[in-house]
Each structure stands twice: as structure tokens, then as C-alpha cells.
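Hallway conversation turned thread

IA: we were arguing at lunch whether anyone had actually written out Transcriptional regulator end to end. Turns out nobody had. So, for the record, here is the sequence (279 residues) and right after it the C-alpha cells. Reply here if something looks off.
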Amino acid sequence: MTSTQVHTSRREELGQFLKACRARIGPEEVGLPPGVRRRTSGLRREEVALLAGVGVTWYTWLEQGRPINASAQVLDAVARTLRMDHPEREHLYRLAELTPSRLPSSVEVVPDTVREVLRALDPLPATVVNGRFDILESNAAQVDLFWEWHSLPCLHKNLLWCCVTEPKARRMLLNYDEEVPHMVARMRAEYGRHVGDPAWEEDIRRLSALCPEFAELWARHEVAEPQLRVREFQHPRVGRMNFRLTELAVSEVPGLRIQVSTPDDASTWALLPGTRRPS
């Protein structure tokens, strides 16, 4: 993909993101009359422009993906009007190219020092992933905890793919309906740095074609930042387990992170040894 095509894709992504944010806000939420002839939910473009103090034509062109310049001050006004939170603002700025984009690494190699950290974290399950949730390295505790997860062959080595394509996932990840949308929103936020990257575009295309649920979640344009999460897991042998999921950035390789699962209660701590496979 040429640089021109990348810029075009980024502008199109920006327009779709703004439309999604605009659609979720009702006029009454910002002090406007609801009206009786609205064809779609949410604010109109001219209403966003009025509330943000920008020109209607300029904002329309922004949503249409036209090559226009947008200052930080103007984007701040649009973000406030659309009630964006911190990760949404960061996503907006990246798509508008107001923050530097990281050049994607052709090969993501896990440093030996990080492998040592993973081993040292055992018996806590831990894995290294990138922005697409590709699994790059895992310690033995992580492998043992999830070795019975799949009823189908694991071909993709990707946490998100393992959730949305595995038939048993909803039975085993008890808070699936909260965790999977969050994962997709995290991936969408990271995508702002990789618009036009062939590997990312192909991954999204394939997963959308394979899984309508992912396609629907992706179309929401929701973005999220890292936060402490509790994942509720039904282990096939030892029963229910609750883990706090903590993420640690890998300083040597930007974009990589270590996900560590820590038991959230005494029961899970007690059950954890029972998840290990016999040697």
C-alpha cells in the first residue's frame, strides 16, 4: 500500500469513527430539542459543528475523509462535543495524524530478558502479546491453564481469535460479553497506529468475514485503553476461577505487552496448582 493510500485509509477511518461517536449522542443530551424528522439517531453534522464552534463545511469534509488540516485546538473542541474519553481522544489524534505513528516492526522478537521475566512469574500465568493480541510467548503456567481451551485446532495463536472462533469460549470465559468487546475496543485503539498496514488490514478482513460478531463489534468504532480487568474462567477440571489481568509494557519493543493473570480470590489461588499438566 502506497503512502497516499495509507493516508486515504486513515482519513476514511477517521470519518467512520466520528460518525460512530456522533450517532451515540442524543440531541437532548447536549441541550438541543429532539425534533420530529430525524432519519437517524444521534446528532446531525451541523449540530456537532455548531456545538464545537467550527464550520459546517469543514466538519462535513472531515467526516467525508477529505484531505484537510485539523489543529489540536479544533479537534479538542470536536472531542469535547462528542464526549470522548481519554482513549477515544488519543485514537482521534492518531487518525488525524497529530501524533507520530510508530513504524511497524517487520518481525516482533521477544527479548531473552522478557522470556526470563515470564519464567520468573510462574506459577502466575503470563503471556506476551502485540496490539493485535498475537501470542508471541507464554510461560508454562499460561500454557497449562489454557491447554484444554480448544475443541478446534489452534491455528492463529491469537487471544482474540481464540475467543471469537472457539465454540467453547462462551462456556469457559464466563464474562465473555464484557471481555470480548473490550478486547476489540483495545485492538481498534491500537489500529489507529497501523491503518494501512497490510498485516493488520488482512487480519481484520479475515476475522470479519469469518466471525459476524467480530464484524459487528469492529463496526462500533469503540476504543479503550489498558485497565485492570477481572476475567471469570470456568476451568474444565477444577471449576470456576477468577483472575485479575494486569498488563506490563515491554520497553525494549514498543507495542508488546506482558499479560499477567493473578488469582482474584483465595479459592482461585487454591485451585491454581490443579491446572498444571502432569509432567
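OS: looked through it. The first helix runs from residue 3 to 23.
IA: good, adding that to the notes. Strands lie at 126-129, 135-138, 229-235, 239-249, 257-263.
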